[in-house]
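Q: What would this chain look like folded?
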Amino acid sequence: MIEAWRWYGPLDNISLEEIAQTGAAGIVTALHEIPYGEVWPLATIQTRRDFIRSNPELGLDWLVVESLPVHERIKRGDGDLEPLFENYRQSMVNLAEAGITTICYNFMPLLDWTRTDLAHPVPRGGSALHFSAVKMAAFELFMLEREAAANDYSTDVIARAQKWFEASTNEDRQTLLDSIMSGLPGAYDRYDVPQLREALAGYAGLDRAALRANYKVFLEAIIPTAEQLGMKMAVHPDDPPRDILGLPRIVSNQEDIEWILGCVDSPSNGLTLCSGSLGANPKNDVTAIAKKFANRIHFAHLRNVAKQADGSFTEAAHLDGDTDMVGLVKVLLEEESTRSAVSENAGIPFRPDHGHELLDDAGRQTHPGYPLIGRMRGLAELRGVVATLENLAV
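A: My prediction, written as structure tokens:
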């Protein structure tokens, strides 16, 4: 397995020199400064790639794009999409020309990942990302005032949400809004409540079937180009794997993944196995999902979550939580062994996803969920699992 690390480029407060000290060599990054829908110029891609490679002693290289974003109009099926598809394909051509051939992307409407708490205390010190069903219900019902949200939560959660809202201060509510808005991708625009209502209005009538149909159009427009270029497209599961703000999520479970990989059946149409995103759904057996789709896993995000009965979950340490990380890594190593029989490039890139803020992480103002020490701890733990399993297989 190929150790990788997500880096936000010039926006990141973690340097390449620090990343090299973690032991990871593959950089996972994107040109976050380019607006959605515009072409990634070859020269800009090469400049970023060459900057990553600039110090040979660090041994770093740009391994995976995360992500080449899908414009919201494509998700909505809004208007003439061919110019957007053509720009996306040209960006793919330019990335392939620069030697970067794995693209992680998602198809979540409006919001990317969603959390209600960015610094949830964990035992023995430090903090983690957290999703509170109660706070999310409070936000949807009493701040956003989305009436249909009452259908998405149990009566117990709604009652506790109302109690939280009535006891909350304006500062509490602003902190909750800021946490939820942290999942907005792109140029890091943020909405207040009226602006969010307006943004959501643009998705009126977009149900699960419509979003699936729009996704199929995207895949049919993109995957043939990926095949021609020898590229691997790897969709990231929904985070969390449930409808959010009344918007459908269609990459949440085994049935969803089976539909995606089957509707355009190509080795280039693959999966980013995110054990945390899939693991937040109590109905998902992450290891079983990995086994079923092993030959289409092009990239892996390894993290763990601890779920609560009401739908809440906390980012756990990488070897804690509800997912059998050892069993999951074993599946990935077995798939690598299968691939090695037919290819020299059998390694599956993975990165330690998210991480607790620990020790000197506090105050560094890194991107939420992406501290230095917490992820280095996760990478070290995963490295130990990989080494042990490889030794046992000898």
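The first strand starts at residue 2 and ends at 6.
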